[in-house]
Specification:
30% of the residues lie in helices and 25% in strands. By secondary structure, it is α+β, with helices and mostly antiparallel strands. Helix 5 runs parallel beside helix 9 and helix 10 packs across helix 11 (401-419).
């Protein structure tokens, strides 16, 4: 038999020959067995004739040859090993191998091996089946596909977990992503805080997005396996994981009989960020590849949660610091109505370099102040915090505004020189003392700040002539001082340069200026102090038209009247007239 005969061709006489006596006995003796072999040359030895059975034995595929009646006439050694049910001389369809009953190509599992079968027709209605063992190649292909699926899953996990910066949202996303790829039910338990542990659970739903819920457990009520995981170790008593999770109420709708579970710690900084419990229904066991995938998933989840918790901790610290640096509302004082407005240059930070506040005095008066430090943002806010703390301490030993500003100047110089900051501030500082008739006497000291405005009961707006040098620059600065009397219902307005230097208008680069501020408050003398401060902020922001700006701070104090109450009525703001032009108070 030639190699062409083995692959399906047929010699001229239509017979397949083989030198095996055992095989030859099964063939019909229609012709000599050598008739299909190539003729020998006269000078050739018989030993030169190839043994075709040896050639067939080295084929990767097994061969099964049947005659026209389907009776097996030839089985190669490879075919004998792969399909031992096939016997020479028996009908092929009676072997019990379903795939051999038809003529279509097939791939099937037989005796633990994956076989591939194809049939090739021969002459005289005979047929040859090629049987190939593809177990290894199929296993490699399946392993490659599985690895690609795992890599794709982990890539999606990395993408989905790259955004959440809140631990709760990140934890819910971890539980949702675990189902159904690595679990039918996934429970994520975060490391306890203040004796309580938050948990999230995702449950597989057919053709639907996994349902996610959560809750809180006391740290003392956590299952033993979870505590082991939070200690950084995977529990070894796997048989009890399902029971512990079921007792905790974490496996709704899952038949615990035959179910399997694993607990994997989520790597964190110094300790695990949490623990992931994954559970599957009966028949879906966790093999080594599955466990490796769960661990890789847990590593990415742990990194995401650690980042989210670090961001949360930093945000909490930032919120605490910001709250301590925000301007404090003036303390309530007899005979004084306060109004404030504040808008930092960097709205996202909520803090800036402008500040205001007040402190009550033992004699019934109040120390009040509004200022602006150099710079803006976090560094300026920290400097304002230092300045406010200095004022909080110094007003207890000095209540005269001019001397108090000089003490503050000395304290700031010592602080800035020690830290090499070179910062300074402008400020108006005053003391308000109420009268029995409801009026106020204001003793004001200026340190290089914009002059205050006074809104008289008559509607006039007066500019207080207050000057002085910057605070925190020279050891003995010149401090301006003046006294202003407010009748009941009259208001003193303090503001920062963020108001007058706000740039906007039609061209977007024109300063708001002092004249526009005077026009904006003219006719507002009957407004309560809070409404007046809000109006100044509003007209300034309207002028800006959402453009960049410096810190804006406004402080208004109004003489509340004999009963300590200001008018509750808001009056329309009239258009300014020539008679409403501001005048300057005498020094």
């Amino acid at each position: 038999m030639t190699a062409a005969d083995v692959r399906g061709s047929d010699p001229g006489d239509g017979r397949i020959s083989t030198p095996s006596a055992a095989r030859a006995s099964a063939w019909p003796p229609a012709a000599p067995m050598t008739s299909a072999l190539p003729p020998l040359a006269p000078d050739h030895d018989v030993a030169a004739v190839p043994d075709w059975s040896e050639v067939v034995e080295h084929f990767r595929e097994g061969l099964i040859v049947c005659d026209a009646e389907g009776v097996v006439r030839h089985v190669s050694p490879v075919a004998e090993r792969l399909v031992p049910e096939v016997v020479v001389g028996e009908v092929l369809a009676a072997t019990g191998v379903t795939a051999l009953a038809g003529h279509a190509p097939a791939e099937f599992t037989h005796h633990g091996r994956r076989l591939r079968l194809r049939a090739v027709p021969l002459s005289a209605a005979r047929r040859c089946w090629y049987v190939e063992d593809v177990t290894e190649s199929v296993s490699r292909a399946d392993a490659l596909l599985a690895e690609r699926a795992r890599s794709l899953f982990l890539a999606v996990v990395g993408e989905k977990l790259g955004n959440p910066l809140h631990p709760d949202r990140a934890a819910a996303a971890v539980a949702r992503l675990a189902v159904p790829t690595v679990a039918d039910v996934a429970v994520l338990v975060l490391a306890p805080r203040s004796g309580r542990a938050r948990w999230w659970r995702a449950v597989r739903a057919d053709d639907e997005t996994p349902a996610v819920d959560g809750g809180v457990l006391p740290a003392t009520s956590l299952p033993a396996a979870i505590e082991t995981g939070l200690a950084g170790t995977e529990p070894h008593a796997l048989d009890w994981l399902v029971e512990q999770a079921a007792e905790a109420g974490w496996l709704p709708g899952l038949d615990v009989r035959g179910a399997t579970a694993r607990v994997v710690p989520l790597p964190g900084g110094e300790a695990p960020a949490g623990v992931l419990l994954v559970a599957r229904r009966a028949g879906r066991w966790y093999d080594e590849a599955d466990v490796d995938l769960v661990r890789a998933f847990a590593a990415r989840a742990g990194a995401a949660l650690t980042t989210a918790m670090l961001y949360r901790d930093q945000a909490e610290v930032a919120d605490t610091l910001q709250a301590s640096l925000l301007p404090v509302e003036p303390a309530a004082a007899s005979g004084v109505q306060w109004g404030t407005a504040y808008r930092p240059a960097q709205a996202g930070l909520r803090i800036g370099g402008d500040f205001y506040g007040s402190h009550r005095l033992t004699d019934g008066g109040s120390v009040f102040f509004l200022g602006d430090v150099s710079g803006k943002g976090v560094e300026a806010a920290v400097f304002t915090g230092q300045l406010r703390q200095c004022l909080h301490a110094l007003h207890r030993v000095e209540t005269q505004p001019g001397r108090l500003l000089k003490l503050l100047n000395d304290a700031l110089l010592e602080t800035t020189q020690a830290h090499g900051q070179g910062r300074f501030a402008t400020m108006v500082l005053g003391v308000a003392r109420p009268h029995r008739d409801g009026g106020l006497t204001l003793t004001l000291a200026g340190g290089g700040h914009l002059p205050p405005l006074v809104l008289r009961e008559s509607g006039e707006v007066e500019v207080v002539p207050l000057s002085g040098m910057l605070i925190g620059v020279v050891p003995d600065p010149r401090i301006g001082e003046t006294t202003v009397h407010l009748a009941p219902g009259e208001t003193c307005l303090l503001y920062s340069d963020g108001v007058t230097e706000a740039r906007g208008g039609w061209r977007g680069d024109e300063q708001f200026g002092a004249d526009r501020l005077l026009n904006a408050v003219t006719g507002c003398h009957r407004m309560p102090a809070p409404a007046l401060a809000e109006r100044v902020e509003q007209v300034t922001c309207d002028w800006l038209a959402h453009g960049d700006h410096d810190d804006i701070a406004v402080l208004a104090l109004r003489a509340a009247g004999p009963a300590g109450r200001a008018s509750r009525h808001l009056h329309a703001v009239p258009e300014p007239t020539s008679a409403d032009r501001p005048r300057e108070l005498p020094a």
